[in-house]
Amino acid sequence: MKIYTIGFTKKNAETFFNFIRDSKIITLLDVRLNNVSQLAGFAKRDDLKFFLKELCGTDYLHTPELAPTKEILNAYKKGDMSWEAYEDNFLNLMSKRQVEKNINSTVLENSCLLCSEHEPHLCHRRLVVEYLNEYSDLNLSVKHLY
């Protein structure tokens, strides 16, 4: 099953929506904890939902169950938690939430996980895909758009 990931930072709207359209994304899964107060105007929930549908024919779905908690995110952003600790905490959180049992696999087909980080290396969207590949039968083939 093919899945994509994308971050909106370091991209203007044209680049971002071209990635989505050209990759034929069916559903954009917003895995951000906070999807309304981001700096990029096109990435705010209501604007994003409108632009995705109008420009790309893509559906929008906010999936906060695939986002870190505020406590985990804030500790990492403030530098009180290393990436390794963040990764461990987030993977444990997904296990507690049993996301592999609760995610609708049909919505993942040709979907794209959205977060803010430009590259996936230090972003939880990469961890979501890796976790699902390890603990589910989905066999996700991932392409990171950046």
From TrEMBL:
It holds the Pfam family DUF488. InterPro entries: DUF488. This is DUF488 domain-containing protein. It comes from Endozoicomonas gorgoniicola.
